[in-house]
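Onboarding guide, step 5: your first structure request.
Type a short instruction followed by the sequence, for example:

Predict the 3D structure of this protein.
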Amino acid sequence: MIVWVNGTFGVGKTQVTHELRRRLGAGWIADPELVGFGLHRMQPPARRRDFQDLAAWGAGVVEVLTGLADLDEPVLVPMTLVDHADEVLGALPDLRHVTLVARPETVRRRLWSRGGPVRDLWALEQLERCTRALAAERFATHVETDDRTVDEVVEAVAAAVGVTLLRPREPRPLAFLRRRAVQLRHLR
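The system replies with structure tokens like these:
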């Protein structure tokens, strides 16, 4: 089973996916952004654009995820996908897709907390476009993240995709440290 966690940049996909994996007690996190970073590194900076617009990105992501579909554990995919969603998501076997949503002011606050507007200027520039696009019916099932803890969002995602969480919530201090570690590992 492939669980694609979609949503605007900064809505909490990475944190939710990592905590979902921990609470499931199993799972493999496959980050399609890494394919895009590889494609970018092959090009001079002046030629780089949104890597999702490269046919090689979509084809590579589909090939890798399809190859993982036979794992005995869920493959968890945290990635904003708007423009090429039909061709990528439509090609994946046993897909469960969920979209995390939040008010733009909530997303701006979250982006600010991970390094400020200069670090995430591109993400801020995409906020309105992605929020509007992801509100469409084709991106349902929507899971609200405003005024919810990561644990509450993980539980809503698990219910939406039909998986059972085997591990309990962590005590707050441990959860804080784990989430900070995830945040630091994903600074780009």
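Each response can be followed by summary notes, for example: The beta strands are 2-7, 28-29, 75-78, 95-101, 142-144.
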